[in-house]
Specification:
heterodimer, A: 112 residues, mainly beta, seven-stranded mixed sheet, four-stranded antiparallel sheet, 0% helix, 50% strand, B: 112 residues, six-stranded mixed sheet, globular
């Protein structure tokens, strides 16, 4: 079991470009969570998804951010028209039936 | 104000000493979890304590939970240089479908 896989590990985007972050949950885990961590801060919840459903997106910015977890394939966090303030580490976690999180190693997004 | 605030923000001790970190929160919870994060890396789940538990042990870790004071402590005994990391508490609030709310963390430095 390879754990929660996130890619890329590091992503550099120019302002205005799109960023796509991928997360493959652990085998057998049907719940995926995305968190964002700014430098020197704790993680902030963004969105909670199950296969093909968004359960809770209360932490997602209203514009430019979207997330999906299709029936097949990884979960994708998409940030359109990135700005410098989007620079952060984005972590994905998965769990079976909402218990026992396993975190990925994160994607560090730098907007230049 | 923020759920899950750790105290102290930073702690420096010598190898062999014990390290105690505290966490306070504001709402009713299902459980409280402690995580470790090495610099620039993902989070590692350390221990989960449920709201009806008062104390839990795992190896050199001891966690207490006082729901009347809405606080928890993490004790690391006989610290090692490899324990150097940031430690975060995270609460799963009642009725939030497994969403975690993280504190800002305690940065622990263990010196030889």
């Amino acid at each position: 079991n390879a754990g929660v896989m996130q890619n890329p590990r590091h992503l550099v985007r120019r302002r205005g470009q799109e960023a796509r972050l991928r997360c493959s949950p652990m085998k057998g885990h049907s719940h995926v969570y995305w968190y964002r961590q700014l430098p020197e801060e704790g993680l902030k919840f963004m969105v909670y998804l199950q296969k093909e459903n968004i359960i809770d997106e209360s932490g997602m910015p209203k514009e430019r951010f979207s997330a999906e977890f299709p029936k097949e394939g990884p979960s994708i966090l998409r940030i359109q028209q990135v700005v410098r303030g989007d620079s952060a580490a984005y972590f994905c976690a998965s769990s079976p039936e909402g218990m026992g999180y396993t975190f990925g190693s994160g994607t560090r997004l730098t907007v230049v | 104000s923020q759920q899950g605030e750790e105290d102290p923000q930073a702690l420096s001790i010598q190898e062999g000493e014990n390290a105690t970190m505290n966490c306070s929160y504001k709402t009713s919870i299902n459980n409280l979890q402690w995580y470790r994060q090495n610099s620039g890396r993902g989070l590692v789940h350390l221990i989960l304590i449920r709201s009806n538990e008062r104390e839990k042990h795992s190896g050199r870790l001891r966690v207490t939970l006082d729901t009347s004071k809405k606080s928890s402590s993490l004790l690391i005994t006989a610290s090692r240089a490899a324990d150097t990391a940031s430690y975060f508490c995270a609460t799963e609030r009642t009725g939030t479908a497994s969403k975690l709310t993280f504190g800002t963390g305690t940065r622990l430095q263990v010196t030889l």
